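Supplementary Note 2. Why include the ligand at all?

Several targets in our set were suspected to adopt different conformations when bound, so apo predictions alone were not considered sufficient. For every target with a known small-molecule partner we therefore ran a joint prediction. The input for flavin mononucleotide is given below.
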Amino acid sequence: MALDSLRALIEAIAARGDLVRVDHPVSIDKEITEIADRCMKSPGGGPALLFTRPTLAGGAPSRYPVAVNLFGSGPRMALALGVECLDEIGERIAALLHLKVPDTLLGKLALLPQLAEVAKFPPKTAGGRPACQEVVIREGDVDLAQFPVPVCWPEDGGPYITLAGVITRDPGSGTRNVGMYRVQVLGKNELAMHWQRHKVGAAHWRAMAERGERMPVAIALGGDPASIYAASAPLPPTIDEFLFAGFLRREPVRLAKAVTSDLDVPAEAEIVLEGYIDPREELVLEGPFGDHTGFYSLADYYPKVHVTAVTLRTEAIWPHTIVGRPPMEDYWLGHATERIFLPLLKLTIPEIVDMHMPAAGIFHNLVFVSIDKQYPGQAYKVMNGLWGQGLMSLAKVVIVLDRDVNVQDPQEAWWVALNHIDPERDVRFTMGPIDVLDHSSRGFTFGSKMGIDATRKWKEEGFTREWPNRIVMDAETKRRIDAMWGELGIDLGGRGR
Ligand SMILES: Cc1cc2nc3c(=O)[nH]c(=O)nc-3n(C[C@H](O)[C@H](O)[C@H](O)COP(=O)(O)O)c2cc1C
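The joint prediction is reproduced in token form.
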């Protein structure tokens, strides 16, 4: 059974002994960050945290607890998505994609249940009063200061909502988008929306601005864990994240009508901020913000959201994450995307064997990719292919290796890559769009990229010298040493064999 809500996820984590309830009063002003950062930097990502007595900026106790680092380990990420191992989801997608429409009727019938598997998960709009609207605070009564919205880092421009799904709609097609974008609290009922220019929410906003129409926005905190993750996934604009979450859950996501707009919101959310953006209004200064690069994002201008209602559960829990110098919780959300989307990448670049975006590369800075090289120049074909795929277009450095390199182990990937390259011959530069968070590019969101061909070089690629083998001990010697290991008196803590 899929987990339906944030509280169900918290209970499931607690049942595994992986949750620490912090009953000591802790300020939302940077103290939560310092504690969460120490946990996230510990081996395996540290425990999930539930701060039961957070204190607000003025020192008053918060009515609402704050949950942090719920997704911050491999096992918890898998638990959130209802699998033992994240690759299961990729394999499920691969199986669907490899379905070939068979010729025979019998074959077609055999296919039906699998097709139905995709079709049966569209979100459902629930009747009655949804959990996320047990309490409704409207217009003038809204005061965001009563919620535990943390200030993360010393130079941040203000308190930030960090683990939300921002719901918008394409004014042309009506397709919904849910994106995880940080949102700065500017005042009692005003927010700044940091959707970056390459993201779908920003595209919806540009389309609304062109029409000169007010844009309804809903910011959902909590809900079923698959939907929370789906908001961070780089889905094509035509795919509704709640449908994708339903596919992941193997159960539809339950939605409810917002109270002040015609958007649908997750019925099981803890808290929903409803509001609108008026594209005729001036942009507002957003930031600075201690970002997942490990550096501050500079302040810049973004749209202002007017909050028209806050709806919540009576005993709402505030979900939160922090970003900063990696590794952080977001590594695990991004890692889930890496595993889930690998089969989709293979669909257009079939020679890809595996890929990995190591934590220190913060996703867009570094991609290791291993390929089944079959012809000269193929590494360049692959890097160019990657730069042509959705948000992969923002990758700054792509390193292509042969299929025998375990790219999941960055030490191994660097070791092989640095051995295999003649820098002047194997490194290529090109230009393209650059991530909004990159502070080094020559222009805002525009700059250069580097592709490194770290595959073995072939004669046809102009390499005429002999290429050496990797050093590997022969199996017979290994077997003999295994047999005598126990007698040798060498204790390597179980690592000898
Ligand atoms: C914790 C976290 C915070 C994020 N903050 C932002 C943000 O402030 N702005 C943004 O554009 N993307 C942010 N992202 C990345 C987007 O969620 C991601 O690119 C997603 O694919 C966007 O959805 P979209 O493709 O529907 O626009 C964040 C991701 C995570 C995991």
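The chain has two domains: 6-320, 349-461. The pocket of flavin mononucleotide is lined by residues 162, 177, 179-182, 194-196, 199-201, 232-234, 321, 323, 330, 333, 391 (CB under 6 Å). Comparable summaries for the other entries are listed in the accompanying table.
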